[in-house]
Amino acid sequence: MQTEKVIDHIVNWLKDYATKSGVNGFVIGISGGIDSAVTSTLCAKTGFPVLCIEMPIHQAASHVTRAQEHITDLKTRFDKVTDTKADLTPVFEEFKTEVLLEGKQKIVDMALANTRARLRMTTLYYYAGLTGRLVAGTGNKVEDFGVGFYTKYGDGGVDLSPIADLMKSEVYEIAAALNISNSIMVAQPSDGLFGDTRSDEDQIGANYDELEWAMKMQDSGKTAADFNGREQEVFKIYTSYNRRNKHKMDPIPVCEIPKELM
What we know:
Elements: H1 3-21, E1 26-29, H2 34-44, E2 50-54, H3 61-77, E3 81-85, H4 89-97, H5 105-131, E4 134-135, H6 141-147, H7 168-177, H8 182-185, H9 200-204, H10 208-219, H11 229-244, H12 246-249
Parallel strand pairs: 1-2, 1-4, 2-3
Helix pairs in contact: 2-7, 10-11
């Protein structure tokens, strides 16, 4: 990958999109992870104002520390970067008092995790509306188009996706070129939706290098029968997520009414 040229391409794309849209800049949620760090830096390089928002909900301390470290670094490097914090923990807790929490604990926990992401999306769009800016998404290619590892209308609810054509490994290449802090570079990727330190790999059962490999194998027409051992296991994990999450990655189905019925 021609890293510097890719960076320039994304920055110019963002700048062109914002200019044509007539907006005042970008709003982005900062999680302390590699994707939001890279995306916010790319947005800042456009010269447009960038509002970085922390939105903790019972967040792990390590995530908070990395997010604050990145925001401080970004504000030092770019004049038009500002930040704010919206502590959504009390909002989340109040929400739980108004909904039914009965059922299998694993299912309830997942529904609440997705609720966290949707509360954050609502917050980002509040500030975007307040400031006349675009919400920048942080999803990468394997998350957005491979395993669908994001929340529908949560972190998937954005105005534009600057890094969604980059594999996770390529995001790290971009991060190195952008001088993203080492604490973020070495941190285990995590969606931070459960209030603990569990990683994406803990949830999925495979790391991003393995998932990228599986994505490429599926795209080349391979099936699980072409592999054995760990490779077959990873391929099955990937295809299972890919199949189950198609509803996120495909356009919303529309029931088209036959003309003769109108």
